[in-house]
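We include the entry.

. . .
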Amino acid sequence: MVTLIATVFVFAVIVLIHEWGHYITAKWTGMRVDEFAIGFGPKVWSTTRGETEYSVRAVPLGGFTAIAGMTQEDVETNQVPASRAFVSKSAPRRFLVIVAGAMMNFILAIVLMAGIFATQGVTSLSTEPRVGGVVAQSAAAQAGIVAGDRILAIDGTPISVWTDISPQVEKAGGNVIHITVDRNGSVRELETIPQSKDGRVLLGITPSTIVQEVSPIDAILLSVERCYLTVVQMLQALAGMVTGETSGADLAGPVGIAQLAGNVARTGFSNLLMFTAVLSLNLGLINLLPIPVLDGGRLVQIIWEAIRGKRLPDEALYRIQMVGLVFLAGVFILATGNDLLRFLK
């Protein structure tokens, strides 16, 4: 139940804010919006205010904004006045409406992160050699190390900062090491054999954390910085997939995201909000990729038409969108396959 509620919450928030960006800018630029929907599938509830129908649909994992006159065929079929149709507006206005969805996702991420930083402070890893956590059944757990212990020495070598620990553990290899710890003012001598995993020698401990209070202004600045760095990392990961430097094995689909949302929700609501912020950045960035069907593909189309001075024929747009749909379907199948493999492991 926690996973279901968390998944609906995350998707509802990031998709609603995305579609609201399209909706509000379409209204502002004089376009006719026929429907603003939350969810997909059959209508559960709807009401009409002015010329726009507002609806809630059965599957609350998305939504859409139906802007009138997205194609010339739509204008003719539904008799959309030229002054209210999307295709009849200037390139800058159409560009604004399409890009607004992703921009709202970026703004949402900044607001959520800033709110978390302002109310809960900023958590960072401590440099002191104090144990923050112990991995279950690890070498440290077998030695009797507990959270809060300060490591004073390993095999007689003094430890002054956290980064001193790993080299000493690596040097010991698979041999017994002697660890001197300070536990609430009491010095204790412990010993254990480090464990090897993926070519690394591990003790099985994590550092302690420090929570620092920040002002609202600093929270906003820090949020913008974190969002920027997150987007850069996402772009690097996408570039790695394109060049073949990294595989798509870590690509997650709806099932994987739902599992992550449920796991994060169990650790606290603030962590779920942070997860929502990161996923909002992801949605915004993905939508700006120059792929047909996505917002980025439509932005390329608008720029191309502005340069050429004429619109692409509806038939050409249809074929381009079909290519985009096939590509996205392939990505969806790959991501869902990864989700199932993780689930079966």
Notes: Residues 125-211 form a domain with the Pdz3 Domain fold (CATH 2.30.42.10). The radius of gyration is 26 Å. The chain has two domains: 2-121+221-344, 125-211.
